[in-house]
Write a structure and sequence with these properties.
alpha+beta
Length: 153
């Protein structure tokens, strides 16, 4: 096997493991999912699939085809920066996820849930039908972490 292709395989496999671990961790921290939004890489995935087809027609090399297949799986697994999700136990922001109990502060303002994590505010849009459920769950899990910003106290 070509050393460059071997190194590419190693890096892609590392990326796959990291992306899969991020997805598993995020799913565990969210609990029952209530909502998610964000733009997936549909265009990138379609372009990679087209590239895979072109390479297979031009070269027919199984090693390179396997490499492209791993890249497609990585692109499918890896979160993008615009992805947001929230559940009964926590929220996720692209590669980051947090349990509500672990957030430094939380604030539910309008249709946005904002969580202070490592001195950085992260926001996720909440569907109107989930506002009351989420408010009750936040008050139950971490009432002492409710932000005083904008509450007048």
């Amino acid at each position: 096997m070509n050393p460059v292709v071997f190194i590419a395989f190693v890096w892609i496999l590392i990326g796959l493991v990291v992306a899969a671990a991020a997805r598993v961790r995020s799913t565990a921290r969210l609990g029952q999912s209530l909502g998610a939004y964000g733009r997936r890489r549909i265009g990138v995935q379609a372009g990679a699939l087209l590239g895979l087809g072109v390479v297979s027609c031009m070269y027919g090399e199984r090693v390179e085809l396997a490499l492209f297949a791993f890249v497609l799986v990585y692109l499918w697994l890896a979160p993008v920066e615009s992805e947001r999700a929230y559940g009964l136990k926590g929220a996720s922001f692209a590669w980051r996820s947090v349990r509500y109990a672990d957030a430094e502060e939380w604030r539910l303002a309008g249709e946005h849930l904002r969580l202070l994590v490592h001195d950085e505010w992260n926001a996720v849009r909440v569907s109107p039908e989930h506002l009351e459920t989420l408010q009750a769950e936040l008050e139950r899990i971490a009432p002492e972490r409710r932000s005083r910003i904008g509450t007048g106290t």
